[in-house]
Model the fold of this input.
Amino acid sequence: MNTLIKDITIINEGTIFEGSILIENEIIGGIISCDFADYHRILSQWELICEKKIDGKGAFLMPGVIDDQVHFREPGATHKGDIESESKAAVLGGTTSYMDMPNNTPPVVTCQALEEKFEIAARSSFANYSFYLGATNDNIGEIRNANPGTICGIKLFMGSSTGNMLVNSEKALDDIFGNGKHLVAIHCEKENIIRENLEKAKQEYGVKEDGTSAIPFSAHPKIRSEQACIECTKKAIALAHKHNTRAHILHISTGKEIEMLVQAHSMTPNITGEICAHYLYFDESDYAKYGSGIKCNPAIKSKKDKEAIIEAVKESKVAALATDHAPHSQNEKNADYLSAPSGIPTIQHSLQMMLQLHSQGILSLEQIVKMMCHSPAECFRINRRGFIRSGYYADLVIFRKQKYTVTKDNIAYKCGWSPFEGETFDYTITDTFINGCHTVEKGKITLLKKAKRLEFDN
Done:
């Protein structure tokens, strides 16, 4: 099907202009600006060949968001989320491509297990997809056999881990960083520092009368501290320098790590970093309101750290603005500090969060599009995505300046809750196209699926 989106405000590659876009089946067939001399003649030609026409007056068009870090919970924890439910939430929020993490049950640490996840996604995903292969102390053979053109990278839990995926063997670390074929995405927190801080917190706060922990959620950034992040990031950067690795430091939560990343990138351009939407949106003062709802790893930290991370987005010091979307059931989250798991469901609302910061004068639309669309595509070398260009896949998002209140009825996460429930954003995501398929229309899922496995120019 050919589709025409006409007279819309287009945000792409550092510019904002009025124009129209032709979608020919899966591909962007053409882009024209209203200022072009032959605009109306070409528009008339396009109208003749299009079965579907969308009037974009008053709306904005941008490339689809690419999220390089999500936890969709399949296989193994599908009571919290699955590939179908969470990719549905993704497209409703304007995310058209995602990369899912391997800390499933069982962990995805073999090429066979990885392909099994791809088979699930081929049947059920609404958004384009890729998956990381998890690194362990003894699976370097699997890593070397993985095709760098068909997977997004290797996930390395370095210093701290969920489950049994912590890599703490020096030989294994050298092998993984020295592999040379893949991007290595790294979770950097030092476990021994966290454990020491946790023991101190247990002694300081004790327990309540009912026997549950009295540690407040506001202690989370002190337990999973700045030091725990910095020490591990420092080691990851040293290994990346040593092996000239395509190392991608995930969910950077401190200003000092941003400084380290900038310096490292100037020496070894292959070293890049990612920040997540919640680190721009919240700081430690928000634990009083949200409690376990914003408990995540690494922890949301100080206002000063938040300001440094916002500045990093403005100045393109990082290569991706992602979510680390990590749903848990409401019952699991409604527990004391020690029992409540870490993780926030955010993929349906991440673009709205950033647009809210734009509404507050903090980020420009061009900065949002660069960090959520262009830069991830470049960092991961994704084939023909992340930009509005002729010949690229038609992964597109339309949004309007229109109030949107988050309610139980419009939350698509399988876990059924969001920290934003009851809150109102200034912008609404109205339409999402996946490979030219109108997957979200006027804010509603159409149930049409045309997602593809991402390909990488490695």
